[in-house]
Amino acid sequence: MKENKTIKWVSIILQGIIAIMFLMSAGMNLSGSETAVAGAADMGYPASSVLYFGIVQLLMILLYIYPKTSIIGAILMTGWLGGAVATHIIHGDAVSMTIVPIIVGVVAWIAIGLRNEKLKSLFSF
Fold it and tell me: Which residues cross the membrane (predicted)?
């Protein structure tokens, strides 16, 4: 029983870390911060896109943290992170910039997989 509590808390903490990362990014985008606008411009996106990025990130993370929709949120997050990987590859960024979104995506799935019985049985978590 103690092991199950530990796994549950590891899952909650990992999911919380992912949620905080995306909420911070969404907040920066929704506020139209200079950092968000400059980052978007550096990647070739217009300044007007940051508001839409923030809305998508906020909706995605809300779906991810709500247990009944966490898989939908994780699927959307995987797509978002895949776009980040593609953008970094297109711009010839360092390998570390390309690997980070992949790691975040894997951790996001592990976090919900530790508590979701259907995912556990599917992937033998």
Answer: 12-31, 43-64, 71-90, 96-114
Give the list of residues 6+ apart from residue 111 with CB closer than 8 angstroms, or none. 11, 14, 15, 18
User: Containing domain of residue 72, as a range?
Assistant: 2-123
Backbone φ, ψ for residue 91 (5° rounding) = -85, 0
Yes or no: say if 114 and 125 are a contact pair by the CB < 8 Å rule. Answer: yes
Nearest residue to 88 (alpha-carbon basis) of 103, 73, 76: 103
* Confidence at 1, pLDDT banded by 50, 70, 90: very low
Structure-token match 């995605």, residue found: 60
How far is CA 36 from each of CA 39, 41, 96, rounded to the nearest angstrom? 5, 9, 20
36/124 Cα distance (integer angstroms):
39
Q: Is the pTM of this model over 0.85?
A: yes
Query: Cα separations (Å) of 108 from 21, 32, 73, 84, 115?
Result: 11, 26, 10, 15, 12
Mean pLDDT of the chain: 92
Best CA proximity match to 104, nearest among 7, 47, 24: 24
* 63: its two tokens: 């779906």
